[in-house]
Task: structure prediction
Amino acid sequence: MRALRNLLLGMAAVGPMLGSALAAGGAPTPPTQQWSFERIFGTYDLAAAQRGFQVYSEVCAACHSLTFVHYRQLSGIGLTPEQIKAVAAAVTVPQGLDDQGAPKEGPGTPANKFKAPFPNETAARAGNNGAYPPDLSLMVNARVGGPDYIYGLMTGYGTPPATMVMQDGMNYNKYFTGHQIAMPQPLQDAQVTYADGTTASVEQMARDVTTFLAWAANPELVERKQMGVRVILFLLLMTGLTYAVKRKVWSDVH
Ligand code: HEC
Result:
């Protein structure tokens, strides 16, 4: 009885502390955005995904890998085979051994995975003040809020409230848990020059890179939705057919 009472008292004391700890570390939910790919029959906005690929390549790829994506998959956002070859050939990848048995390097091919900026996690941390820039291949699926969160994170930088003590090398971000993130604000207005003439505002680049990362995490999304529609149509047809057969078979029985 006494043990139970102590336990209850203990829980009552810890409860509010836990609550306030969570509140201190928590972050507001990023506002909901409209994404073309989130609607029932939605598809990826390919122009946005291509611009997002440019943002990833010119900005994010300096720190973040995209390990689970192969260059050949870029056909999924509408790149032609020639464009994909050129993108892959721009990086150098290990290519077995030369005649002397020394490791050899050469231009990448569409069959290669996206090249990571750092050879391993230790090197990545060393290049980022001790923080690890996570792989972005599945990031849109890995965070609560998905694309809204990535967009929020990209646009959520600002000056910290006067009461907040910032740790060394950290940056204030409204939507990051704890509000202190090791990643410096990656996007500034006009950071990239879009080939299609779109104005590269922070919001535009955030939207585009999020679309690209959503595609990277779910490249088969559109096929999945189309398959769903076909399955429903097939089931409807089968229901009609089976009903017709049932009526035919039982038509003599009154
Ligand atoms: C200068 C290096 C650098 C660049 C450039 C950079 N990042 Fe980061 N990023 C980091 C680091 C370091 C972290 C880890 C932050 C932490 O844990 O405090 C991070 C974390 C993240 C996270 C995870 C946040 C979370 O919830 O854990 C996302 C998403 C992200 N970056 C997206 C991007 C995108 C998109 C771009 C390009 C527009 C980009 N980053 C450019 C260094 C970078």
Remarks:
- Residues 55, 59-60, 62-64, 128, 131, 133-134, 139, 143, 150, 153, 181-184, 186-187, 209 surround heme C (CB under 6 Å).
- Confidence is low (pLDDT under 50) at residues 15-24.
- The radius of gyration is 26 Å.
- The CA atoms of residues 14 and 40 lie 44 Å apart.
